[in-house]
Specification:
Nucleotidyltransferase, domain 5, five-stranded mixed β-sheet, globular
Length: about 140
């Protein structure tokens, strides 16, 4: 019998400033994917914090990529704090979460896979946004 391993669940977590344009988010995503030799088609979903659920740039990115955007509350993301590569007091002050991109990516990867997840790419940032990739099998 041949065993077929399931494709890993790859999730992009995103945090951004209010009004961050989709072009900035897409440029950061494309830069990270290229640097890690990944392709857009490998991504299953996007994740963020519920404070950003109506953020136009995030909604436009999800539409461009034809991917779902799942948003979590700060209390749902809080348990991931010990697993973050960087804990930002500024992010906590604004959102109640020490790291939106990493926490959201881990939370959604675990929800989609039903198993544990790890950061494939820790927090990457530009002036207006942060991005992290989590993977689960």
């Amino acid at each position: 019998m041949i065993e077929v391993s399931a494709a890993p669940t790859l999730v992009v977590g995103l945090g951004c400033q209010k009004g961050c344009p989709v072009t900035t988010l897409r440029a950061l995503l494309d830069q990270v994917l290229a640097a890690h030799r990944l392709q857009t088609r490998q991504i299953q979903a996007l994740a963020s914090i519920d404070l950003k659920r109506n953020e136009p740039g995030l909604l436009q990115l999800a539409e461009q990529l034809q991917l779902p955007l799942t948003c979590f509350s700060s209390s749902q993301l809080a348990p991931y704090a010990p697993r973050l590569s960087h804990r930002s007091p500024i992010a906590f002050e604004h959102s109640g979460c020490y790291g939106v991109a990493e926490s959201a990516a881990l939370a959604l990867a675990e929800r989609l896979s039903g198993g544990s997840a790890e950061l494939r790419v820790p927090r990457q940032k530009c002036a207006q946004a942060t991005l992290a990739l989590a993977v689960a099998r």
